[in-house]
Amino acid sequence: LDLEIALKKAGIPTLHFISPSIWAWRRSRIKKIARAVSHMLVVFPFEEAIYQKAGIPVTYVGHPLAEVIPMDPDQHGARALLGIAQEERVVAILPGSRMSELKYNARVFVEAAVQLAKRDRLMRFIVPMAGPAQRAYFEQLIGPAKLASLPLTIINGKSHAAIEASDAVLVASGTATLEVALYKKPMVISYRMN
């Protein structure tokens, strides 16, 4: 926003794509946004009214994920891609992609998997990791003994395939919840903070 303010003061129009979540927190930022933005592009339809009320030119353009995720998810195809048997009951675990999210969510998410595995021996878990650093940190947090004791597969990337292949998802609150919803999967949304 500071860069946009400087550009706008210099006479250069600014177009801001993906609005800050002022409807969720820090609603007072709308005044700074008004000074910074010549036109706001929003991804949720309800955001348009917020900016119109503040006198900021706005256009609802839709969420980019809506164009990436298919209207009719292919669970069988995703399972084939990931080597998961069609008859298995699969829970995707998405504890987050940031190290801080992994720090607060990984252990409790895996502990939930332990409890589910005790109830249903046919349950399988799949955990997509955003990159090698996240995977190494996740494995360090959980420990090799715990990982070996669970029917849990860690995969690199492929979070969309993991969601599509699953029957249900345990997910950290954030953008991933929208992805899960677009894949039409039931989910438990969780988040832990310090």
Explain how this protein is built.
The mean pLDDT is 87. Helix 10 (175-182) links the parallel strand 7 and strand 8. It is built from ten helices and eight strands. It has a five-stranded parallel sheet with strand order 6-5-4-7-8, sandwiched between helices. Strands 1-2-3 form a three-stranded parallel sheet, covered by helices on one side. It has 194 residues and is of the alpha/beta class.
Secondary-structure blueprint:
Blueprint: H1 2-9, E1 15-17, H2 30-36, E2 39-42, H3 47-53, E3 58-60, H4 65-68, H5 75-82, E4 89-94, H6 99-119, E5 123-129, H7 132-142, H8 144-149, E6 152-156, H9 159-165, E7 168-172, H10 175-182, E8 187-190
Parallel strand pairs: 1-2, 2-3, 4-5, 4-7, 5-6, 7-8
Helix pairs in contact: 5-9, 6-7
Fill in the keyword field for this structure.
elongated, 10 helices, alpha/beta, 8 strands, about 190 residues, 5-stranded parallel sheet, single chain
Structural class: alpha/beta
Instruction: Give me the strand/helix succession.
Output: HEHEHEHHEHEHHEHEHE
Strand count:
8
Stretches where pLDDT is under 50 for at least 5 consecutive residues are: none
Q: Percent of residues in beta strands?
A: 15-25%
- Number of alpha- plus pi-helical segments: 10
Short description:
The protein is an alpha/beta fold.
